[in-house]
Specification:
alpha+beta; Jelly Rolls; 2 domains; five-stranded antiparallel beta sheet; 13 strands
Length: 230
């Protein structure tokens, strides 16, 4: 019975530890589901059949580049931005700032990305194509910029999460900008969704947290047995 209670205690403590530490408080999050209007392409996305549109709109953002906004529907009322890397690359900039730029403070930016494609294979994302996620300050200066490859298009619109950290420069509020890291390629740099800004956090691996707690409990159990034997 004592072993069972101890095991339950370990699991409860591990769950509490993970809940508290894996995700810090979110300062700002952008799910991009406000994308509206624009023109649905006469064809659907190559290989998936997903709805795609161009010259769409997104309130609260400034956008430029060839046929921006390019957008991808990945579920009911669930939209993602597509970033085209032509000679006039798509660039999407958030109009309003938010409090994530205190001087000397570290912040984390997480986002879901994926390779993407339009109506035919000719513009599909390649391994060498890059998305650029930038944090701007109140005067338009770059606080941080992260170029990331989504990988090459492989026939399905599968997203995965990436993240990076930056240190605030204290020049007003932060803003978000999304564009291509290698403009002029003529391909899609990728698709992006669910961008979140979070406060400084450790991000322990679940297995590491469980092992740490289990090891601590194991030491306590051995000490208890030793005391009982003595």
């Amino acid at each position: 019975m004592k072993k069972f209670l101890l095991s339950a205690c370990i699991l409860t403590s591990a769950n509490a530890f993970l809940t508290e530490n894996v995700h810090a408080a979110i300062i700002a999050k952008f799910d991009l589901n406000g994308i509206h209007d624009g023109f649905y392409d006469s064809g659907s996305q190559y290989q998936t059949g997903n709805f795609i549109k161009y010259q769409a709109q997104l309130t609260g953002w400034t956008y430029s580049g060839f046929n921006a906004i390019h957008a991808l529907q990945i579920g009911a009322d669930n939209w993602a931005l597509m970033v085209y890397s032509g000679g006039d690359p798509n660039t999407y900039t958030l109009d309003s700032g938010f409090s994530a730029n205190t001087v000397g403070v570290t912040y984390w930016v997480s986002y879901d990305i994926a390779p993407t494609v339009y109506v035919n294979s000719g513009q599909a994302t390649r391994n060498v194509d890059l998305l650029r996620i930038s944090v701007l300050n109140a005067v338009g200066g770059t606080v941080a910029s992260n170029d990331v490859s989504t990988g090459a298009w492989a026939g399905s619109q599968d997203f995965h999460q990436e993240y990076f950290s930056y240190v605030g420069d204290g020049i007003g509020d932060a803003r978000l900008q999304i564009t291509s890291g290698n403009p002029g390629s003529g391909f899609f740099a990728g698709a992006v969704d669910n961008i979140a800004f979070e406060s400084t956090q450790p991000i322990p691996e679940p297995t590491s947290a469980l092992l740490l707690l289990a090891g601590t409990a194991g030491i306590a159990l051995r000490r208890r047995r030793a005391l009982a034997a003595g």
